[in-house]
Amino acid sequence: MPRYVVERTFPDGLEIPTNPDGASVCLGVVDNNATEQVTWLQSFVSTDKTKTFCIYDGPSPEAIRRVAGLNGLPVDVISEVRVLDPYFYVGAAS
Amino acid sequence: MRDSRLSASEEAVTDGLLERDGLLAELERRLDLAAVGAGSMTMIAGEAGAGKTSLVNELARRAAGRARIMIGGCDPLSTPRPLSPLLDVISDPGSELGDLLEESSDPVRLFTEFLTRLKGTMRPTALIIEDVHWADEGTLDFIRFLGRRVGDANALVMCTYRDDELDTAHPLRMVIGDLATRDAILRLSVEPLSIEAVRTLAGDTWVDPDHLHRLTGGNAFYVTEVLAAGTEFPRSVQDAVLARVSRLRPPTQRVVEAVSVAPRDLSILHASALAGARPTHVDEATNSGVLIGTGDRLRFRHELARTAVESSIPTGSRLDLHRRMIDLLSEETPADLARLAHHAAMAEAGELVAEYGPLAAKEASIRGAHREAVSFYEATLAHSSRLSADQVAAIRFDLGLELAIVDRQAEALEHQLLALEHHRGTGDLWAIARTLVSLGSRYWANRQTGRARESIDEALEIYESLDAGEELAFALYVSATTFMLSRRRDAARRDVARCAAKASEVGSDRVSRLALLTEGTIEIVVGDPDRGIELLREAYERSSRAGDDRAAVIALGMLGSGGGEARRYDVAIEALEMDIKRGLELDEDYGVAYSRAWMARIAFEQGRWDDAAVYADLVAEGPSGRGSISPVTALGALGRVRVRRGDPGARAALEEAVALGEGGEMQHLWPPLCGLAELAWLEGRSDEIGGILEWVFAEAMRADSEWARGEVGFWMWKAGVIDSPPDRAAEPFDLHMRGGWREAADRWHQIGCPYEEALALADGDTDAMLRAIEIFDSLGARPAASMTRAVLRDRGVDNIPRGPRPGTMANPYRLTGRQAEVLSLMGEGLSNGEIADRLFLSKKTVEHHVSAILAKLGATTRARAIAAVGGLLSPQDGGTPRIE
To answer: Is residue A86 classed exposed, middle or buried when 0-12, 13-18 and 19+ CB atoms within 10 A define those classes?
Structure first.
């Protein structure tokens, strides 16, 4: 399944409380994602909390957009990505 | 003589049925549900000999009092008998369905009528269809038909099959895949027996249970055969079976051999005649447990036993048995053609294959079993030395038609070309012309449009020289249709007029309806769309009244796709929805995929991009039927949605669409190629557009489709390759290219294409550009919105709105953004017309949104829908839903 980075903007800042309410919001997102076989892997949040970079596995950009709609989340840009880490080329050089 | 030790072990498997309690409980539970109207279908998989038949027989035994039991099976014939299981069931007097046999020439009516007999009954029906891995195409259609509808019938359908014999291309796999997502479908697996079960079966016999379990892998049939075989371990299941048979008296062995050459079963009368045996020998065969007698017929306990015995018969005797079987079967009426053809092939009796093959093929074709028809014809051709050259040519012609239906287009062409060669040799002009007309369609399907045209022209010339009647009218219909497909207006109009005149001259109502249909299609795509719509509606009415369902469906499809191409969306959507509904009822997968693909294209053009993606996914996931036109259209729409949203995967989808449509008609290729051109424009690679569109621009200029000329021309103009509109470009594109951005935008607004409207406004003054940005933002057209913002900034315009404000919380009703917008405007009390104006949509589109909203909210009226969400959706910023 392809992997995507989804950039989102929250002009008023993203606020998810670290309490049972916040946990239930996140689990709701996970349930909605499951309806489209979309898996939320993790997110990076800018320090001012106005931008997020979310990593997803999903079948298509349309599925990513549909679950964003279900979750009431904005979508700016969707990019398809591959994983590269510092040891990616180790061995390939020798 | 019955060996008591053997029967004890047999009973342990068949009557006691070890380790099947869980499966039986599930089947009984499903039968209870079926009794109250919640029917289901169970696909029961297992290797040969695993005990699938024992399982369903046990269920049938337990349910005998409270359910109506129907059993049908597929035969291991070289080519299966079309609809064999269904015909078994309805011809069984116990089923009280004998009257349905009259329906058997029309599979869809037969299936529909059969299904109604499974509904609202006092007792539930347990329908067992055995060995569906051997099913013919008609039976697979039947299973698919039932699987999609059994949910509200009082029936439990159980299909058994060998899952280890399904290679990846096996047609049953596709049926199972099609049904996989349905709740009413359950898959069960009959697993091998455990060591404990084998230990129980072996009991206190001489057999070492561990060795037996290892040898047989727990295969239930194999285990019983070994236990029944005698005193030493056989090397294989075949050896076990043969060891048992070898203990019978010679005349009894001949009875067993006779039954072995008959797939499934054989009447006692025939078996005795073939074996020259007396009733006591038949009794010995059944008492020994090698054969089972049901009514007046004999069969093996298992197909594995039958093939073991059959393959042990010396070749000469086997051929002789098959030949004598034909003598017996040919005296029966009605003749079982598939069985006769099978025995003729097995007897290597060429003259008989040639006699029965074509008859069996025609019967298969009528029953919707086109794969089997192909296979009967191919078997016949293998013995072509027994046929006259005329017969061979006739078979090749018919085989070509069947191959075309099963989408083996290259072979279809090849066979009909050989038929043509023969007719040219004999100089039979009527046969030559008839073959040429059919070749026109074969060439077209093989994407050789030039050759298609030559064939049709030659056929017309011959028919004219022969002063032909209905044949000429029909050939003119094919000719006009071919010109229409290539979007050649004048030639298409000329031939359809000649076709109509000829049809009325010779009094052919069928061809005159076809003429009407074609004339309507020509007008809608390259002529006067209003007149086209009127003619197609008339064609639909007349064909429906005449009971010509096929023509009626084509009329609907043309209103849908032709209306879509002419951007007459209301007409198109209405026809496509009717067509989809009808197609789903009748399992016309090709038609459903075709109409859904057009729904995707229309939704894309109307700016309903979520809907477009859903329709495109349905085409990609569902059975697309035959041919590749629908995936081209659907992928094109999906790719273009991605282009306009700036999403990844745009180029891949469009390039795949173009590759699938390669070599085909311009009409299918222009949209994805325009998508690639637009992608280049948005990515600042406008210099590539001339190359991308070169071929399709030239083709569009040769053809008469104003919309193709308009859109392809528009992107050429955007790229600066041309500086004025091409002749006869569709009006809004033409206006835009002439600098009339305001008029173009108005026109697009009326048609209901918001993105194109915004493209026109983006070429206007500052206010228009701000308006364009607003529309692009509301559509989620990020690349075009950014591009327009950049142009405005360059011009020094300040205060450009930053973009849409996103929603903040979950939307519990799963409405799309657009639907939430429509709902909030409904809440303000706006009418559909007012909402349409506010959101730059057509009224019809708003109506679609409203019905989707009502469905999602489970509301029957607008007022209830608004009440259902109460204060949840804030009506103010017309943007995104928000929970207060």
So the answer is: exposed
